[in-house]
């Protein structure tokens, strides 16, 4: 009887996991490409290409999803201000909680790396920050700090947002996230403001959820995000205003979609 009960439980758990995986808005092999534009001298100018890739990584004890976001200025603009930024997050395939985060930014002559190793049980992070000095040497600083339950880096936050049941939201509904950036927590609130049909690169015109980004932080003044109103919830467009100007991200190509 015990064996039968155990077998029944295993089958139920397997089915629950399968259902959970079917509900994910993304999968191994997804790649999204965007153009990044910034208002220069009153004109919106395309400056860089941004990509978001999802892959599956197997470790000795589990299977993780690896989210990798890259931003590169176009070659013709590198002489003016070269950007080569990489943001990565490794999350549990089942809980979508991050276990490892890496940020490597090269903007002009400025270089900086940040690494978080999460302990989700103790809600602590082992972080390592590496900065390049003017003389070409590196300054490395290790620091451990605590984080609130549910707080995540910016990359895993975006993918968790995509997996929310926005289809059940009513206009005016909000969801608050705590984002970890440079070892500090910042709260942002996402507000559902309706639906809108906009251009979505190779996907053509798509009906999208329109989300307003609300924050009291000093960096972001305002922001709006559009996600496709389907099971993939692909970020199609983002508009943002910061103290030194405004910019736009526009989807150009989407492949390897989950649904």
UniProtKB/TrEMBL annotation:
- Enumerate the UniProt keywords alphabetically: Signal
* Pfam families assigned: DUF3108
Record InterPro entries: DUF3108
Residues spanning the signal sequence: 1-18
The answer to keyword Signal applying to this record is yes
Spell out the protein name for this chain.
Answer: DUF3108 domain-containing protein
Natural source organism: Kordia aestuariivivens
């Amino acid at each position: 009887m015990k064996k039968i009960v155990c077998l029944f439980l295993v089958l139920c758990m397997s089915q629950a996991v399968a259902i959970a995986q079917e509900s994910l808005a993304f999968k191994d092999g997804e790649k999204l490409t965007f153009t990044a534009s910034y208002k220069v001298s009153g004109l919106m100018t395309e400056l860089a290409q941004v990509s978001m890739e999802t892959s599956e990584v197997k470790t000795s004890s589990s299977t993780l999803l690896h989210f990798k976001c890259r931003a590169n200025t176009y070659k013709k603009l590198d002489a003016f201000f070269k950007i080569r930024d990489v943001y990565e997050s490794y999350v549990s395939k089942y809980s979508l909680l991050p276990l490892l985060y890496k940020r490597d930014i090269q903007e002009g002559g400025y270089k900086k790396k940040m690494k978080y190793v999460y302990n989700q049980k103790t809600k602590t992070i082992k972080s390592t920050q590496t900065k390049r000095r003017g003389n070409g040497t590196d300054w490395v600083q290790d620091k451990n700090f605590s984080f609130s339950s549910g707080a995540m880096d910016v990359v895993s936050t975006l993918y968790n947002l995509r997996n929310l049941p926005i289809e059940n939201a009513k206009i005016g509904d909000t969801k608050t996230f705590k984002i970890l950036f440079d070892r500090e927590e910042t709260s942002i609130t996402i507000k559902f403001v309706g639906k809108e049909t906009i251009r979505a690169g190779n996907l053509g015109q798509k009906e999208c959820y329109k989300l307003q980004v609300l924050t009291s932080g000093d960096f972001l003044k305002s922001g709006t995000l559009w996600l496709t109103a389907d099971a993939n919830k692909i970020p199609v467009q983002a508009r943002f205003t910061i103290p030194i100007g405004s910019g736009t991200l526009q989807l150009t190509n989407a492949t390897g979609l989950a649904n």
